[in-house]
Design goal:
Blueprint (H helix, E strand, L loop, with lengths): L3 E6 L4 H12 L4 E8 L3 H11 L3 E4 L8 H20 L6 E4 L1 H6 L8 E4 L6 H10 L3 E4 L3 H24 L11 E3 L2 H10 L7 E8 L9 H4 L4 H5 L8 H9 L1 H13 L7 E5 L5 E7 L4 E5 L5 H9 L13 H4 L13 H12 L3 H17 L7 H16 L7 H20 L2
Parallel strand pairs: 1-2, 1-5, 2-3, 3-4, 5-6, 6-7, 8-9
Antiparallel strand pairs: 8-10, 10-11
Helix pairs in contact: 2-3, 5-6, 6-11, 6-15, 11-14, 14-16, 15-16, 15-17, 16-17
The protein binds magnesium ion.
């Protein structure tokens, strides 16, 4: 079998750089054919040189006139000439703006798109990846939270295409949509070889974040720097704040609902502060399968790219002799209200998760800019959701509709933050 050819969207972020690390160690099986960043052009150029990538995109439109863009055009031209002569690549390309990022999903030579974009901006790329019949390795959970009703039917189509074309594994899921999230990667693996109808519960584990055990009064004066320090996972700013508010876990509950076609009453969150158990699946006979491993995102990233195979990983294995105690607790949804809000949004469905997600993105940015307080994040999200429920939640119909709802929610949340 030839190499898997990969496009990485968000290649300079936490997931992106760890994806490149996996590719570096498995260059016999994986190859990068396209890279997209939001604004870090210098790092993009360094990555392009290292991996010989001649399809590049920069998402931030404001950088269109940056002189480094000329450098990027020259570079892809040089890298592309050698490839075109070998007949292994389409015309080299470099573009600026969200359209250029999404266009990388359509590269004829790409087999897999790793979507590690931040926020609802990732939905379009997820949709277009699957619409082009390619495998989507998804770190952008917002794609499913906001657009799961559109993404999952497309993924089922690509699964069917892969089975018909003989590119799917002989047994197990066809693999069109591979989650890059430690919890969902864990559940995916626990479900291999199992009958989904015999599942009685998905246990999504949560570290509890840096403020586990704190009261609302103690959370009131929390600063961005305090909220950015996560106890077990090293991640980008948006997801670190979401982890501290438990919104991340709320998004993951909705993500699990879509990915595994599970009703919400079969999805439970449990706090597991050591993050050694990445999630669990309970079956009809009471048996529970848990997925354990070192807390290193390169493992779930690699599994998404190696499936159905497993490869060696450059991480220290768990040593159970020194692991110590594993604790479990129910999440405190009175203090961490974002988790309850997300569950309500998911259970209601339609356009409400889109509103919740967009308002949360605005509120997190406002908190990081010190415009609103820590507890205001949940209050802002709740205000936007209530406003949307008053006018009426709609069934999800199209990307265009979701973009409109998203914009409305952002404006609503923005004006809420300005009134603080
Ligand atoms: Mg996660």
């Amino acid at each position: 079998m030839g190499k898997r050819r990969i496009v990485v969207l968000g290649s300079t972020g936490s997931i992106g750089t760890q994806t490149l690390d996996v590719v570096r160690r498995h260059s016999d099986a994986l190859e990068i054919v396209g890279l997209a960043v939001h604004g870090r052009i210098d790092e993009l150029l360094a990555q392009a040189r290292e991996f010989g990538v001649d399809h590049l995109a920069v998402g931030d439109k404001a950088l269109a006139d940056d002189p480094r863009c000329d450098e990027a055009r020259t570079l892809v031209g040089e890298l592309g000439r050698a490839r075109c002569e070998a007949g292994t690549s389409s015309e080299p390309s470099f573009g600026v703006g969200p359209g250029a990022v999404a266009a990388l999903t359509q590269l004829p030579e790409a087999d897999v798109v790793v979507n590690a974009l931040v926020g609802a901006a990732g939905l379009q790329a997820s949709y277009e990846t699957l619409a082009a019949g390619k495998v989507l390795a998804l770190a952008n959970k917002e794609s499913l939270v906001v657009g799961g009703d559109l993404i999952m039917p497309l993924a089922a189509q690509v699964d069917a295409q892969r089975r018909a074309a003989g590119t799917a594994p002989a047994v197990g899921p066809a693999g069109a949509l591979m989650p890059i999230d430690s919890e969902h990667g864990a559940i995916y693996q626990c479900l291999l070889g199992e009958n989904a109808r015999e599942v009685s519960k998905l246990w999504v584990t949560a570290s509890g974040g840096p403020f586990r055990g704190k009261t609302r009064d103690q959370l009131l004066p929390i600063t961005p720097a305090q909220a950015l320090a996560h106890p077990t996972w090293n991640m980008g700013a948006k997801i670190s704040i979401d982890s501290s508010t438990l919104m991340n876990k709320g998004l993951e509950v909705i993500e699990a609902h879509h990915l595994f076609a599970m009703p919400y009453d079969k999805i439970e969150v449990v706090v597991q502060p050591q993050s050694a158990i990445h999630s669990m699946v309970e079956f009809a006979d009471g048996s529970v399968k848990a997925h354990l491993g070192t807390t290193d995102m390169r493992i779930p990233i690699q599994f998404a790219l190696s499936y159905p195979d497993r490869w060696e990983a450059p991480v220290a294995p768990l040593d159970f002799r020194t692991l110590g105690t594993l604790e479990f607790a129910a999440p405190d949804t009175d203090t961490f209200r974002c988790l309850a809000l997300a569950r309500h949004a998911g259970e209601t469905g339609g356009t409400l998760p889109c509103v919740m997600n967009a308002a949360n993105e605005v509120a997190v940015a406002a908190f990081l800019a010190e415009q609103i307080g820590y507890l205001d994040i949940a209050a802002c999200v709740e205000a936007a959701m209530e406003a949307h429920e008053r006018v009426g939640v709609q069934p999800v119909e199209s990307i265009a509709q979701l973009q409109e709802v998203d914009a409305w929610s952002r404006a609503t949340a923005q004006s809420w933050c300005c009134r603080r």
